[in-house]
Structures are given as structure tokens and as C-alpha cells.
Design goal:
The complex is a heterotrimer of chains A (289), B (125) and C (241). Chain A has 289 residues and is of the alpha/beta class. Chain A is built from ten helices and 14 strands. Chain B has 125 residues and is mainly α. Chain B folds into two domains: 66 residues, Arc Repressor Mutant, subunit A, CATH 1.10.10; 44 residues. In chain B, helix 1 crosses helix 3, helix 1 crosses helix 4 and helix 2 crosses helix 3. The chains are: A alpha/beta (289), B mainly alpha (125), C mainly alpha (241).
Chain lengths: 289, 125, 241
């Protein structure tokens, strides 16, 4: 279990993370969601010892992960950071990964490379397109023998077919060798079905940490004649309300399920992406036409 | 199979429902193996835990059984069981809504009965 | 824990580059003059070892800093690995220098070592040979340490003008250093006339020079360590823009 407590991080004197608290369990698939620039990548870098936090602790099964190679050997971060010289050959990169982590799954890498039509033996990093650099990084991430894999935008630049292939590859290896995946992504709708739980980062902190299914049970869109809807949602906190003529639509996470739904008022669910949008919507966003 | 991400019905429940529909229609015949959790998860890009939860609903309802090391199979009598269940649910699920809709549109009981007779005659099997 | 693996990667690379560089230098500095007819070669091992050590340091950082962060190696281990790799380079370089020098002598090239410390290379007694060897080694270490710093600066500076300015400064560095040391020397001797006897003293006790340069190398490495432990991973490795 990975426990993250009170993590703070500034970037050029501006606070990015202001007290992140998270618990990541083994063998689960997590989504890490947040608006652009909220600090998802920063948090992932702090966890994997690439960035030093200003405050806070992170422990893996009790031992601190900072500057701790024993712990870091069980964690792996895949991101778009180009930390290797672009003249490096892909197979050399993989060899380094194997030498530093031990136990790289070459068989799986070959299989995935074949599926994605990536030449593991000949490719040089520089010669790969953005999409294929991502594919290469993702394949490596799926083949390291680590217990916690962090994927920062793993489908960046991938076409729709490759994205689907990635999700399927992820599930396949997860079934073969269950481990934790934390996926930071903006393509929420696509990934929602894969996730067990989700974290939403907002204003430098974890604003929401919940099981996806439970969250989706809470999220509702209530729509109908304004007076009826307002009455139904008396005293209930809403994420947003939209008025169109005499009709009112309200988005909420706290549906009063014990109250009877008045006739003429509809109650619909929200998919994770819609839920996220409403939850993290800022003042004034999306109101203008 | 099709799953709605924005439904009020949880995904695991939708999975169970769709498998029930398959058993009811005979697409998944009695005694036959149904797709594994891994296969369903793979095909629809769903977390295996979700799929497993749905399958367990079917196990608890006595519709499918897990055979260790082999897979999951439709139990004998499952189709009949579901048919009975559906007939029992028919009133609550269909009739109530039908009557409500008719009343909202201002139809009388006679209007509705006439419509049903017409439908029974015209709608094919 | 990852020290050995990282060091292995570094060392393999350094060994190859070192041998190639020194081989090339030997060809240029020793064989070429010989072939062109003259029998003397100015082989300033002190200058060359600093430069080669410096380049080694720069290359070590640019090649491995990113890998260290990507592959779960702690900053502490990376610093130890850099230092160990530089040590390896220094020992290798000093040894190759010694061997090459002996070869040059054997084939009749008169090498004029600049710096009294290098009379040892001409074979006048084992003690002086060892001092000469140690001198090249610590110079390489010192150059390597500065190279590490320079490599870090390149990795973390995002503005091209600063990089260009730094490269120009480095080019002027020998002249700047000479001017600087001359001024410093003038300053010290005017304050303490007794200091004038130091060079003679040092030349007679060559180990002191080796020791001082060694201390300098250690100081630089300590600075590298202090800096490195505070760093976040660079955004990008390799030439930008």
C-alpha cells in the first residue's frame, strides 16, 4: 500500500500541490483526474523520486519512498518526459530498463510490439513519431516487474485504434499479473470502464477519492419544470443548475433517493466524464453562448 | 452487448441484465459455457472486478454456475426460471408504465384496451 | 542497490571514449610530429587531462542524468556513480598517459613535459613516475568534477543565450584562469613576500601539488553532490531547440 500524506510542492514559488492525501492499494486500477495544470504530473514525479516535495511523506508498505531505491524499484512512471538521449536505440533503452529493474518481460514486449507494429530491434527514439514514442514508452511500462505502474497520459497522440489496443493490452496484462495501475488522463470517458477507483485533483489537493461505481451511483442529472425540480432538490447541494425557459436541469452528487420523484421530472445518470466536468467546472465556464 | 456509461443502472447490474437477456432468448443455451470474466472485460474494456460482480449476481440467482478450472456455465432450468421471473415482473415493469402513459395522454380504459387488441392482432410473433 | 548496474553502464562507455580520445591525441601529438620530421612534441598532459576529464564529466551527466531519474536510481547513488566513473576515468587516463609517454620515448620522440612535476615521466626514478601518474589522475578528477557541473548547467538551463555565453566563457577559461592566477599570485606575494618561495618548495615536494589538486577535486565533487541532491529531474535531456 502506498500512502501519500501532506505532499506540498511549489513550482517557481507558485504552490502546485498544497497537501495531497491519497492511499493507493495494491492490484487496483486507478484514474487520476484533474484539469490542465492542476499538478497530476507533478504528483506522479514526486511519488517516483523525480521531484522533491517541499513537505509531506510517501510510504510504500511502511518505508519512505524518497531516495529509497528498494521502494523505487517497485514503482515505475511512464510519461512524455524525454529523459533519454534521442539518439538512443530502443533496444538499448530496454536493456537499461532490464538492467536497472531486473526481470523485464521481453516476451510480452515482443508480443505488444508486434501488435502495434513497432520494431523493437531497429528503432531509434529520434526516428519515432510522437505517437510511437508513446507506444514504446507504454510497452516498456507494461513489461517492467513493478507493483505500481504510473501512466501519465499513456494515450497521448495515439489514434483511436491504438488507444483501444492499449486498453485491451492493459487489461490482459492486469489479468495475467495483477498489479496497480494509476492512469492520469484527460480521456476520461474512454478509460472509465477500466477503473476501480478515481482520484480527482483540484486546487492542489485531492478533492474526490472514490470507487467509480459508487461515484456514478451518486451522480445524477435532474431535469424538468423549474419549480418541481427546485422543490425536489430542497436543501441539496448541486454542482450546477442550468435554466432554459421554464425548464431546470440540475447536476448533483447527493440525490435525495428517499424522496419520491415528482411526475414530469426525469432522473438520469452521468458518465464519469460528465461528472468530472461538472465537479471541476470553474465559475463562468461554459455559460456564455 | 451494449453498456451505457451514463445510466442510473450500475455497470455490473447492466452486465447481469444483458446476460440474463441472452439466457432468456436462448443465445446462451443451458449447459453451455458463457464467456469468461476476462473475455468480457477484454471485449468491452471493463475492469474485471466489475464484470465479476455482475457474474456473481447471476451465480447468486442460480442462473449460472462456476466450474473450477473450466469456466462458467448456464444452469439447467435457467431459461425457464427467467421466463417465470419476467412474467411476474411484467405487470410492475410494463403494465404500470403503460397505464401511466395512457392516463397522461388522456386516454380512457376503453381506449387502452382497444389499442391492446389492435396490437395483439397486428404485431407478429 | 542500483549502484553497480549504473556504474557498469557508465564505465563501459567511459572506457571506450577515453581510449579513443587518447589514441587520437597520441596520433596527433606524438606520431604526427615524428612523421613530419621533427623529433620533439609538446605534450602537455596537464592541460589535456583537464580537458578530457572535463568532457568526460559533461558527457556523464548528459547521458545518465535522465536515465537515473527514469530508472529509479536515487540521487545519492548517481553522485557516487559519477564519482566512481570519474575515478575510473582518471586512473585509466593516467595509466594510458604513462604508457603512451614511454612508447613515445622509446621511439625517439623527445617529449617536453610542461610542469616540473612531469620530469617523472621521463623515467627518472619510480617515485617521480608515480607522482606524475597521480598528478594526471587528480587533474582528470578535477576537470571531471567541473565537467559534471557544466553538464548539470546545460541540462537545466533553458535559455539558449545563457548556454552560448557559458560556452564562450569556457573557451576563454584558460586565458581567464592564467590572468586570474597571475593577478592572484601578484596579490599574494605583495602581501606576503615569503610566498615567493612557495613554487620552488612545491616543485621539490611534488606530492603537495598532487594533494592540493586532489583537494580541489574533492571540493568540486562536494559541490556537485550538494547541488544534485536538491535537483528535480530535468524536463528534457539532449539538445534543445
Amino acid at each position: 500500500m502506498l500512502e501519500i500524506k501532506g505532499i506540498e510542492k511549489k513550482y517557481r514559488f507558485k504552490p502546485v500541490l498544497t497537501g495531497v492525501e491519497m492511499t493507493i492499494q495494491p492490484q487496483r486500477i486507478y484514474g487520476l483526474l484533474g484539469r490542465n495544470g492542476v499538478g497530476k504530473s507533478t504528483l506522479l514525479k514526486v511519488i517516483t523520486n523525480r521531484a522533491r516535495p517541499a513537505a509531506g511523506t510517501i510510504t510504500l508498505d511502511g518505508e519512505s519512498v524518497f531516495e529509497n531505491e528498494h521502494a523505487q524499484n517497485r514503482l515505475y512512471l511512464m510519461s512524455d518526459a524525454r529523459l533519454f538521449n534521442q539518439d538512443t536505440k530502443l533496444k538499448v533503452l530496454i536493456k537499461w530498463v532490464d538492467q536497472l529493474y531486473g526481470g523485464f518481460d521481453y516476451a510480452l514486449a515482443e508480443k505488444l510490439a508486434h501488435q502495434f507494429k513497432l520494431d523493437l530491434k531497429k528503432s531509434k527514439l529520434r526516428k519515432l513519431s510522437t505517437g510511437y514514442q508513446t507506444i514504446a514508452n507504454v510497452i516498456i511500462a507494461l513489461c517492467v516487474p513493478c507493483d505500481y505502474i504510473f501512466l501519465d497520459e499513456p494515450v497521448l497522440g495515439l489514434d483511436a485504434n491504438h488507444r483501444e489496443m492499449f486498453y485491451q493490452a492493459l487489461l490482459a496484462t492486469y489479468a495475467m499479473r495483477p498489479r496497480t495501475f494509476v492512469i492520469a488522463t484527460h480521456l476520461i470517458e474512454e478509460v472509465a470502464g477500466l477503473l476501480n477507483d478515481v482520484f480527482v485533483l483540484e486546487h492542489g489537493r485531492v478533492a474526490l477519492a472514490e470507487n467509480v461505481e459508487q461515484l456514478q451511483q451518486r451522480g445524477r442529472v435532474v431535469s424538468g419544470p423549474a419549480a418541481l425540480v427546485e422543490d425536489y432538490l430542497q436543501g441539496i447541494e448541486t454542482l450546477r443548475t442550468v435554466r432554459l425557459g421554464g425548464m431546470l436541469t440540475a447536476y448533483t452528487l447527493d440525490t435525495p433517493l428517499e424522496r419520491p420523484l415528482p411526475s414530469g421530472v426525469s432522473l438520469d445518470g452521468m458518465n464519469l466524464q460528465q461528472l468530472f466536468i461538472e465537479f471541476t467546472r470553474e465559475e463562468g465556464e461554459g455559460d456564455e453562448v | 452487448m451494449h453498456f451505457e456509461a451514463d445510466s442510473v443502472v450500475p455497470l455490473y447490474q447492466q452486465i447481469a441484465t444483458q446476460f440474463e437477456a441472452g439466457i432468456l432468448s436462448g443465445a446462451f443455451a443451458e449447459g453451455e459455457q458463457i464467456p469468461s470474466t476476462t473475455m468480457v472485460a477484454h471485449n468491452y474494456q471493463l475492469n474485471p472486478a466489475t464484470v465479476l460482480k455482475g457474474m456473481n449476481l447471476l451465480v447468486d440467482a442460480g442462473l449460472i454456475e462456476k466450474r473450477r478450472g473450466i469456466g462458467m456455465f448456464v444452469r439447467a432450468g435457467a431459461q425457464a426460471q427467467l421466463q417465470q421471473q419476467a412474467q411476474a415482473d411484467f405487470y410492475q415493469q410494463r403494465v404500470v408504465a403503460l397505464v401511466q402513459a395512457a392516463k397522461q395522454l388522456g386516454m380512457t380504459q376503453a381506449d387502452l384496451q382497444a389499442a391492446i387488441e389492435k396490437g395483439w392482432g397486428h404485431v407478429g410473433d | 542497490m542500483k549502484f553497480k548496474a549504473m556504474l557498469k553502464l557508465m564505465v563501459r562507455w567511459i572506457a571506450v571514449v577515453d581510449v579513443l580520445t587518447i589514441g587520437a591525441l597520441f596520433l596527433i601529438e606524438v606520431l604526427a610530429p615524428l612523421l613530419s620530421g621533427s623529433h620533439t612534441a609538446t605534450n602537455d598532459w596537464s592541460f589535456m587531462s583537464i580537458i578530457i576529464g572535463f568532457m568526460g564529466g559533461v558527457m556523464l551527466v548528459s547521458t545518465y542524468i535522465g536515465a537515473g531519474f527514469q530508472l529509479g536510481v536515487s540521487r545519492h547513488t548517481m553522485v557516487r556513480a559519477y564519482a566512481a566513473a570519474l575515478l575510473f576515468q582518471s586512473v585509466l587516463q593516467a595509466t594510458i598517459a604513462l604508457v603512451l609517454n614511454q612508447i613515445a620515448l622509446a621511439i625517439g620522440v623527445q617529449t617536453q613535459a610542461i610542469g616540473a612535476v612531469f620530469t617523472g615521466f621521463s623515467g627518472q626514478g619510480l617515485a617521480l613516475v608515480l607522482i606524475g601518474w597521480a598528478y594526471v589522475a587528480v587533474l582528470t578528477m578535477a576537470g571531471g568534477g567541473v565537467g559534471l557541473l557544466f553538464g548539470l548547467m546545460i541540462c537545466y538551463t533553458t535559455r539558449r543565450p545563457i548556454i552560448i555565453l557559458t560556452i564562450i566563457l569556457c573557451g576563454l577559461l584558460p586565458m581567464v584562469t592564467m590572468l586570474g592566477s597571475m593577478l592572484a599570485w601578484w596579490g599574494v606575494t605583495s602581501l606576503w613576500p615569503a610566498a615567493k618561495s612557495w613554487p620552488e618548495y612545491l616543485n621539490q615536494h611534488a606530492w603537495l601539488i598532487v594533494g592540493l589538486v586532489g583537494l580541489l577535486a574533492c571540493a568540486v565533487l562536494l559541490i556537485v553532490r550538494t547541488l544534485y541532491l536538491r535537483l528535480d529531474a530535468p524536463k528534457q535531456v539532449g539538445w534543445r531547440g
